[in-house]
């Protein structure tokens, strides 16, 4: 098994240090809706990072990185909804967006690396 990637570690830390404590403050009525959706999206983000790290086929790695990027975007939307519902403050939203943007930059860098590594299928000229 491959060592956990920086991306995977960042996603795990984000879930443990930022998301779990935050969700404890959500109303009980949101426990099985927005709360659950945010957790599931975090789990999917971590799963996608693990898959991208452990696969050797570049095309598959890129697919999992695309999935990780989509989950990151979904989390941005879900946190926006939480802010609109006044479950989190504007300041907390900016903090979460900053951390998700950092994860997004790592994803983008990995995508660029794998596309340019020569192992990825290139467009025909």
What does this 3D model show about the protein?
By secondary structure, this protein is an all-alpha fold. The protein has one domain (6-116): de novo design (two linked rop proteins), CATH 1.20.1440.60. The protein contains four helices and no strands. It has helices spanning 6-23, 34-54, 58-84, 90-116. Helix 1 runs antiparallel to helix 2, helix 1 packs antiparallel against helix 4 and helix 3 (58-84) runs antiparallel to helix 4. 25% of the residues are buried.
List its traits.
125 residues, mainly alpha, de novo design (two linked rop proteins), 4 helices
The tally of beta strands, per DSSP, is 0
* SSE string: HHHH
- Head-to-tail CA distance between termini: 37 Å
CATH topology: de novo design (two linked rop proteins)
Stretches where pLDDT falls below 50 for ≥5 residues? 120-125
Describe the biggest sheet? none
Residues in helices, as a percent range? over 70%
Number of domains: 1
CATH superfamily: 23S rRNA-intervening sequence
Instruction: Tell me the fraction of residues in β-strands, as a range.
Output: under 5%
Mean pLDDT across every amino acid position: 91
- What is the top-level CATH class? Mainly Alpha
The Cα radius of gyration reads 16 Å
